Amino acid sequence: MELVTVGGGDIEVEVLPRLGARLHRLRVFGHDLLRTPDDAGAHARDPVFWGSYVMAPWCNRIEAGVPVAVGPRRISLSSNFPDGTAIHGQVFTRPWETEGEGSFVIRGGGDGWPWEYEVRQRIAAEGGTLRLDHALTNLSDAPMPAGLGIHPWFRRPLQVAIRGARVHPRNVATIAEPIPVIGAFDLREMRDVPDDLDGCWTDLADPPVKLHWPRVGILATMRVVIGIEPNESMRFRASSLLHVVMASPSHLDAVGVEPQTHAPHGLRRLLNGEPGRLSMLEPGQALGLAVELAFKRAR
Hints:
The chain is mainly beta. It has one domain: Distorted Sandwich (Beta-galactosidase, Chain A, domain 5), CATH 2.70.98. It is built from 2 helices and 24 strands. The strands form 5 sheets. Strands 5, 10, 11, 12, 13, 15, 16, 17, 18, 19, 20, 21, 22 and 24 form a 14-stranded antiparallel sheet that branches. A hairpin with a 2-residue loop joins β7 and β8.
């Protein structure tokens, strides 16, 4: 399986271009911070729960099994998850092309998604900072629903701060409106990750996420910029589109901390006019997501 290395020194990333251009490994100050299998082929056998991958043209769960009309076109997706939904988009297991050092691209569409699109990812590491730039461009001749995100599985033990004032407390059968954070969902201050949370935070401060690996003494600050532009320049405006999903299944030795552009069930939200819905891209427009992780050693 082809493995591409980006960076070196303080930060080294290993990428699998032919399997979703996913991050197989993220090594910072000599320590692995992602849930990385000993055998890279494990990503193909179980693509949901390893490494870090791009989610597009939607994130999280949307409806599957029943055709849904969006304007004159109909979405008719098959389920790819045991709960009967279509999860994490179409590109996280497919082959991407390598365009240059740290740059990857894929064209998608079909299989029940009646629009053609392109997704680009650029990975850059400098000093103690990792930068992940993404753009989802509508290549079709009609407006397209769009969502974009990344899904890193960070190794435990892990402490997290998600600085969101409101939360969708469930990613399955989620309610329309987010609620104020309370109890285990109030993560505005750094704390150990509670087990078996699966929520989506909104109304986020800057920076939206802070991470701490106490066993290896590493801290990270996550900053995110989202916007819609007529091209793929990666110069995107700050936006209120940002949502952060966190999943902490107790049976797993990792926690998913996922910046993305919409809330769970974004297609239903779009059709019903609910908050956190998928964006609509005009032909030629791009939805962009830039994620910066700044690492430092904890004292």
